[in-house]
């Protein structure tokens, strides 16, 4: 009997609550319909996880605060005659990165990230992996828009231009060390592009708590950059993408087995290039050419990649080069000979599905490399070619950005770092002694 009475009372209370709620909604002004009220509740601060992805077309994006640096640190390096060098660049319309800027263009990752964020104030496009926020308190990470690819002059830093470059790098360090947001996290949640191998040469150790976006780890020791903390990003490819690669029989159309065009004598791990030259230069189905970068050379490289089954990517002065990404967007199966290479987006992509890997020792065994390539069945090559066509969009830097292109993939990589960096930030705030876990190593 008592239980029955309790049930009646409970139903009565629930009914009254529902009735009051309905009455409240009906008394709202005309503009506040039921649906708009629900939308307002969804977007209350601190309620971001309640966003309905199916309705907005946008999964919860990474929230990025971009520092408003004087343009002399970024777009002003592209427009040196700009009289407003001390003012931030806020215009979504930006000057183009020069097509003839040589090696620096390959490393222009910071430019594309900044262009993306200048146009990422809201999440209108469901393909956007990051959104810019104006309130630092809402940010997951902080992006430092410094064009380090246009601000490096080698480790010696000599000459008048180098004096200015070093001054700008020192200025970035000073700005960050004075920032309350940098000090709050010791820089752990700050993203800095150092894609050029000489970027931030004299200051990289000072900023080493941050997330570096790099091409590889060839010129970093592991106290500065490492795979668990930092992000490997693709080079900006310099050869045009092969968007018309839809022939019926691509295997037969490509009449060269293996293609390479570039410098054949390099230092460090790149010494393997000279050894490969001795094995490959006189093979009738191989193009192995020593060449400097030029407009004619680029055109020849494009034609060579599009008419070859395989494209050679040996180590150079650094473990990686733009050549790999030129091959990918031209659907020429990469043959990677670089013992210390790390690859972009490898938690999403299995490079074994569209690349071949040889150690330096394996590659210079007489007959081994060419024997493997010549022995690959047509069906297997076609599978790899199809995979290249399917994944090449991940290596495109473009504006406007598209779903899962290079910039969106980079921001997804950053987002995956957030839980670990938050753990580090929170843990460091409460420690009152030297980190005992590090002492135990």
Automatic annotation (TrEMBL):
Recorded topology in the membrane: Single-pass type II membrane protein
One cellular-component annotation, GO: Golgi membrane
Cellular compartments annotated: Golgi apparatus membrane
Segments crossing the lipid bilayer: 9-28
GO molecular function: glycosyltransferase activity
Highest taxon, organism lineage: Eukaryota
Domain Exostosin GT47: 60-370
Keywords: Golgi apparatus, Membrane, Signal-anchor, Transmembrane, Transmembrane helix
Protein family membership: Belongs to the glycosyltransferase 47 family.
Protein name: Exostosin GT47 domain-containing protein
């Amino acid at each position: 009997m008592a239980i029955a009475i309790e049930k009646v009372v409970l139903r009565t209370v629930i009914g009254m609550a529902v009735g009051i709620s309905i009455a409240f909604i009906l008394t709202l002004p005309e503009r506040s319909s039921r649906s708009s009220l629900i939308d307002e509740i969804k977007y209350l601060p601190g309620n971001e996880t309640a966003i309905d992805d199916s309705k907005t077309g946008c999964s919860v994006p990474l929230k990025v605060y971009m520092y408003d640096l004087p343009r002399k640190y970024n777009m002003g390096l592209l427009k040196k005659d700009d009289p407003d060098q001390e003012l931030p660049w806020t215009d979504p319309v930006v000057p183009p990165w020069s097509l003839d800027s040589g090696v620096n263009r390959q490393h222009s990752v910071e430019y594309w990230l900044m262009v993306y964020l200048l146009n990422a104030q809201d999440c209108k496009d469901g393909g956007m992996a990051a959104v810019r926020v104006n309130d630092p308190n809402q940010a997951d990470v902080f992006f430092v828009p410094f064009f380090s690819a246009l601000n490096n002059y080698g480790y010696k830093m000599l000459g008048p231009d180098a004096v200015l470059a070093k001054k700008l790098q020192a200025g970035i360090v000073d700005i960050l060390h004075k920032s309350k947001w940098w000090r709050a996290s010791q820089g752990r949640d700050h993203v800095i592009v150092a894609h050029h191998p000489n970027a931030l040469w004299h200051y990289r150790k000072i900023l080493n708590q941050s997330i570096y976006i790099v091409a590889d780890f060839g010129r970093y020791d592991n106290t500065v950059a490492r795979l668990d903390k930092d992000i490997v990003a693709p080079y900006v490819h310099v050869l045009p993408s092969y968007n018309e690669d839809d022939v019926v029989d691509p295997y037969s159309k490509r009449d060269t087995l293996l293609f390479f065009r570039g410098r054949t004598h390099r230092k460090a791990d790149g010494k393997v290039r000279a050894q490969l030259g001795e094995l490959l230069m006189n093979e009738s189905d191989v193009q192995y050419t020593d060449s400097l970068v030029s407009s004619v050379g680029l055109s020849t490289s494009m034609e060579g990649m599009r008419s070859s089954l395989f494209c050679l990517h040996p180590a150079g002065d650094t473990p990686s080069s733009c050549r790999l990404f030129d091959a990918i967007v031209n659907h020429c199966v990469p043959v990677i000979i670089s013992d210390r290479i790390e690859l972009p987006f490898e938690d999403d992509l299995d490079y074994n599905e569209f690349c071949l890997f040889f150690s330096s020792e394996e590659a210079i065994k007489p007959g081994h490399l060419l024997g493997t390539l010549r022995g690959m069945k047509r069906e297997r090559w076609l599978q790899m070619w199809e995979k290249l066509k399917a994944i090449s969009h991940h290596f495109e830097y473009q504006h406007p950005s598209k779903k899962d292109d290079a910039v969106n993939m980079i921001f997804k990589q950053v987002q995956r770092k957030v839980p670990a960096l938050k753990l580090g930030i929170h843990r460091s705030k409460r420690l009152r002694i030297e980190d005992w876990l590090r002492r135990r190593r």
